[in-house]
Specification:
The N terminus is likely disordered. The longest helix has 22 residues. The protein has three helices and six strands; from the N terminus they run H-E-H-E-E-E-E-H-E. It has a six-stranded mixed barrel with strand order 1-5-2-4-3-6. It is globular, with a radius of gyration of 15 Å. It has a single domain, classed as Beta Barrel (Barwin-like endoglucanases), CATH 2.40.40. About 25% of the residues lie in helices and about 30% in strands. The structure holds zinc ion (ZN).
């Protein structure tokens, strides 16, 4: 019992190592705490269903996030603690200030994500 529960944090830490490489490098611009929600390419979330972001790219899961470009410039790489590295490719009417919307392929998955406070690491330079 004890061995199993103590193994969990270690696995979590090792899976984060790669993503933290640039976070700990000179590419890190700033960190901020953001309120994160999720969306999918359905008409309920987007008012359309073509999956094209406001920057003209095709939204991809584990890559696309929507941001407020006044806070996070479009094209920025953003590491979200525990979730991985994403690219700011989209915007949204409700995404203002320290808010991030993560693109997911499935509406129910997006709903299940709910609202989470997550530490975000913003990279210098644009993808
Ligand atoms: Zn949706």
């Amino acid at each position: 019992m004890a061995a199993w529960s103590s193994a969990l944090p270690q696995e979590f830490a090792s899976s984060e190592t790669d993503a933290f490489a640039w976070v700990q490098s000179e590419r890190l611009e700033t960190t901020l705490t953001v309120t994160v929600t999720a969306y999918c390419p359905c008409p309920i979330c987007c008012g359309k269903s073509d999956g094209i972001t406001s920057s003209g790219t095709l939204a991809k899961k584990q890559q696309t996030i929507a941001v407020d470009p006044d806070v996070i410039p479009i094209g920025s790489e953003v590491y979200l603690e525990g979730l991985g590295t994403f690219i700011a490719e989209d915007t949204g009417g409700a995404i203002k200030g320290n808010r991030i919307d993560i693109f997911m392929e499935d509406h129910n998955q997006a709903l299940l994500f709910g609202i989470q406070e997550i530490k975000a690491y913003l990279s210098k330079g644009r993808v």
